[in-house]
Amino acid sequence: MWNQSRATGFAGRLSARAKLMVMGMTVVGAASGAPYNPQHLSAVQLDQVAEICRTVMGFEPSRPLFENLWPGSPDPEALTNNYRGCVASLAGFLISVPTVWAKTRAQDECQAKGLTPGSSELGLCELRAVEATSSRDAVETPSLVVTPFSEIGATSQPPATASATRRRQRTACAEIGLVPVQSAFESCVHDLDAVLIAERMSALYQNR
Prior knowledge:
This protein is an all-alpha fold. It has helices spanning about 5-30, 45-55, 80-110, 120-135, 160-175, 185-205, and strands at about 65, 80. The chain has a two-stranded antiparallel ribbon with strand order 1-2. The radius of gyration is 21 Å and the shape is elongated.
């Protein structure tokens, strides 16, 4: 007779099987040689992001995959590596660049009118300027000129020091068109830091 215990066990087996199928599909996709493109960037944008992850961050697509403990942060897949996490992270911020710059321009234009920082007048001015910009066609993402990380003081291996790592992260975020005064810039740097942490946390989880 079908009972609650058997039903629970059957559901557990289905859940485990579904997870294995998802992970298997991820491995097949990675092995197919298709460029990893979770944000569905254009070919030009994807090439730019991939080059930044390779030449600035020093990550390679061939790095071994590990279990992604936090899918969607930033890589949505069940299996990931530093390269895939970097691509997913930078792609998300690259898409947001036109909006970020619209906000920056709105701030500059409204402050140029002499409105007081922190005032409701300035806030409303910036809001209206951003809404007006977003109602028009999106601004094209600036063409990127990728700086190989051999030119920013790095060696052929990722530097061991935190300061060198942070410099690469900041350079990568600048390469996609963000600037340090924008809050999105620091968010971008934080995401790239999370990419490195994800690998270490996965290794610790596997070795518990």
